[in-house]
From TrEMBL:
<feature type="domain" description="Isochorismatase-like">
    <location>
        <begin position="40"/>
        <end position="237"/>
    </location>
</feature>
<feature type="active site" description="Proton acceptor">
    <location>
        <position position="46"/>
    </location>
</feature>
<dbReference type="GO" id="GO:0019740">
    <property type="term" value="P:nitrogen utilization"/>
</dbReference>
<comment type="function">
    <text>Hydrolyzes ureidoacrylate to form aminoacrylate and carbamate. The carbamate hydrolyzes spontaneously, thereby releasing one of the nitrogen atoms of the pyrimidine ring as ammonia and one of its carbon atoms as CO2.</text>
</comment>
<keyword id="KW-0378">Hydrolase</keyword>
<feature type="active site" description="Nucleophile">
    <location>
        <position position="188"/>
    </location>
</feature>
<dbReference type="Pfam" id="PF00857">
    <property type="entry name" value="Isochorismatase"/>
</dbReference>
<dbReference type="InterPro" id="IPR019916">
    <property type="entry name" value="RutB"/>
</dbReference>
<dbReference type="InterPro" id="IPR050272">
    <property type="entry name" value="Isochorismatase-like_hydrls"/>
</dbReference>
<protein>
    <recommendedName>
        <fullName>Ureidoacrylate amidohydrolase RutB</fullName>
        <ecNumber>3.5.1.110</ecNumber>
    </recommendedName>
</protein>
<dbReference type="GO" id="GO:0006212">
    <property type="term" value="P:uracil catabolic process"/>
</dbReference>
<dbReference type="InterPro" id="IPR000868">
    <property type="entry name" value="Isochorismatase-like_dom"/>
</dbReference>
<dbReference type="InterPro" id="IPR036380">
    <property type="entry name" value="Isochorismatase-like_sf"/>
</dbReference>
<dbReference type="GO" id="GO:0016811">
    <property type="term" value="F:hydrolase activity, acting on carbon-nitrogen (but not peptide) bonds, in linear amides"/>
</dbReference>
<comment type="similarity">
    <text>Belongs to the isochorismatase family. RutB subfamily.</text>
</comment>
<feature type="active site">
    <location>
        <position position="155"/>
    </location>
</feature>
């Protein structure tokens, strides 16, 4: 007898996984998730020097970036598998124009809550170096330069759907499932996944290809939030075993 499984697929719960189903099923929490590669995209969130490198914005703002290396290495594995499976790859770059007009002035809550803007106000000599387009800080890390066919989308706020063409780009390609890697789990990754949830996308975070801004318990809190309320959580090994490169 075929063991019964429960997994989410195209908005429904299938109580029995069909024996002849060709749709790959990703082991995940709180339940396995069906991932048709033709309907799935990988979203790489803000793997820029600002968030991943010593002397980048997060480091200068007092956040620990000493353990971000594995996130980059694991994302490389994910991208190899995704490209082999024919999945679109989307890179996000977070930041603003060199004069920070896009960041918003005192009339914007971003002016008060952005740690980059607050750090530059405290240390004016850093003005123009943090998250400004055209700077090293804004650049994607060298290891993750986009390849032909990859999509790069700039964004000016935490969520990747806000004021971008992400939604229309995904819908025009028939994408329903979003696989997330990147930094920071509790800020831009979770914000983008939440917004995708509200737009009826199935979002799954590969936990060991993400990193938090803050102490380690913040990572666990964000993953709990995601798997309980907004999406699914899996791992790089599970994804790469399902879609071998």
């Amino acid at each position: 007898m075929v063991a019964k499984e429960t997994f989410a697929v195209s908005g429904y719960f299938q109580s029995v996984a069909p024996v002849d189903s060709q749709t790959p099923v990703l082991p995940a929490r709180p339940e396995p998730l069906a991932l048709d590669p033709s309907k799935t995209a990988v979203i790489v969130v803000d793997l820029q020097n600002a968030y991943s490198s010593k002397e980048g914005y997060l480091d200068k703002a007092g956040f620990d970036v000493s353990t971000t290396g594995p996130v980059i290495a694991n994302t490389l594995k994910v991208l190899s598998s995704a490209r082999k499976a024919g999945m679109p790859v989307v890179f996000f770059q977070n930041g603003w124009d060199s004069e920070y007009k896009e960041a918003g002035g005192p009339g914007s809550p971003n002016w008060y809550k952005s740690n980059a803007l607050k750090t530059m106000r405290k240390e004016p000599e850093l003005m123009g170096t943090m998250l400004a387009k055209g700077t090293w800080d804004y650049d994607l890390v060298d290891e993750l330069k986009p390849q032909p066919g990859d999509i790069v989308i700039p964004k000016t706020r935490y969520g990747g759907f806000y004021n971008t063409n992400l939604d229309s780009m995904l819908r025009s390609r028939g994408i329903r499932n979003l696989v997330f890697t990147g930094i920071a789990t509790n800020v831009c990754v979770e914000s983008t996944l939440r917004d995708g949830f509200f737009l009826e996308y199935f979002g799954v975070v590969l936990a060991d290809a993400t990193h938090q801004a803050g102490p380690p318990e913040i990572q666990q809190a964000s993953l709990f939030n995601i798997e309980t309320f907004f999406g699914w959580v899996s791992s790089v090994n599970e994804f790469c075993e399902l879609f071998p490169s």
